[in-house]
């Protein structure tokens, strides 16, 4: 990506971010006028910098829970989407359960997971996986179903097995769908870990915000929220870099608005 194209991509969200921060500053300074309710952005940055050691200490567990849970979600989504593609019976049996799994709010079942599995890593990993699994699996299943039928038939007529045709045609064809699902689910990953920590944890950004709220350090609560937002944006942006690495052929496809 050229510097000019990068700038054209970045300046609209940067402009919106500046407008949001400016509005926050004006509301906090002239309307609320109470740092215990809404601290100014400068106060949040200053408090976060002074507490950077504690913030980092609590960020590491949240990242570990997010990475482990998302890895589990990634593996399960590929396994189940592949099974659904190979078997109509598996699709009919599993897909309704995938949809049903999204009807239960994570925040409602997080305490149950903590009661059953304790305060260690496992309940957080399971909740992150539950929060991120459906977009990945659904996107992959749709991508497999949208594969080029003519290419599949051509390979099969040349003696390729179903698995070989799946790897050569259906998997590459499903990758754009997969990365769309990945971008949706990655935004839920850290949120799932934070909800799990709210329900019960020793360290993590969720329990850190809960503790700071309890001692009325709203500035540090906002500082933790900023850290979560920055991490989520970085994870979201990393999906584009990964997509360019995994699907290099898409660089030569016409972009939207081009002929």
TrEMBL record:
Broad class of the protein's primary localization: membrane
Q: Which GO terms describe its cellular component?
A: plasma membrane
**A Pfam short name:** BPD_transp_1
Transmembrane feature ranges: 67-86, 93-119, 125-147, 220-242
Task: Give GO BP annotations, semicolon-separated.
Answer: transmembrane transport
Q: What is its membrane topology?
A: Multi-pass membrane protein
For the ABC transmembrane type-1 domain, which residue ranges apply?
59-239
InterPro entries in UniProt:
MetI-like, MetI-like_sf
UniProt keyword terms in alphabetical order = Cell membrane, Membrane, Transmembrane, Transmembrane helix, Transport
Task: Give the residues annotated as coiled coil.
Answer: none
Its localization reads:
Cell membrane
Q: Does the keyword Membrane apply?
A: yes
Protein family according to the UniProt entry = Belongs to the binding-protein-dependent transport system permease family.
> What's the name of the protein?
ABC transporter permease
The taxonomy runs: Bacteria, Bacillati, Actinomycetota, Actinomycetes, Catenulisporales
């Amino acid at each position: 990506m050229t510097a000019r194209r990068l700038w054209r991509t970045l300046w609209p969200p940067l402009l919106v971010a500046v407008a949001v921060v400016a509005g926050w500053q004006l509301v906090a300074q002239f309307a609320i006028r109470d740092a215990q309710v809404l601290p100014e952005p400068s106060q949040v940055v200053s408090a976060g910098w002074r507490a950077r050691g504690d913030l980092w200490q609590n960020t590491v567990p949240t990242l570990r829970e997010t990475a482990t849970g998302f890895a589990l979600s990634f593996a399960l989504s590929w396994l189940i989407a592949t099974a659904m593609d190979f078997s109509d019976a598996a699709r009919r049996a599993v897909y309704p359960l995938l949809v049903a799994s999204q009807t239960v709010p994570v925040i409602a079942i997080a305490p149950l997971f903590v009661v059953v599995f304790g305060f260690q890593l496992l309940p957080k990993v399971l909740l992150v996986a539950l929060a991120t699994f459906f977009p990945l699996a659904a996107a992959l299943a749709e991508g497999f179903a949208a594969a080029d039928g003519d290419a599949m038939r051509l390979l099969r007529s040349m003696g390729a097995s179903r698995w070989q045709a799946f790897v050569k045609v259906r998997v590459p064809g499903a990758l754009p769908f997969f990365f769309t699902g990945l971008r949706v689910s990655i935004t839920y990953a850290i949120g799932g870990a934070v909800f799990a920590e709210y329900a019960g944890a020793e360290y993590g950004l969720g329990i850190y915000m809960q503790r700071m709220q309890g001692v009325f350090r709203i500035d540090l609560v906002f500082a933790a929220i900023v850290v979560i937002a920055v991490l989520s944006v970085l994870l979201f942006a990393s999906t584009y870099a990964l997509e360019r690495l995994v699907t290099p052929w898409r660089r030569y496809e016409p972009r939207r608005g081009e002929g």
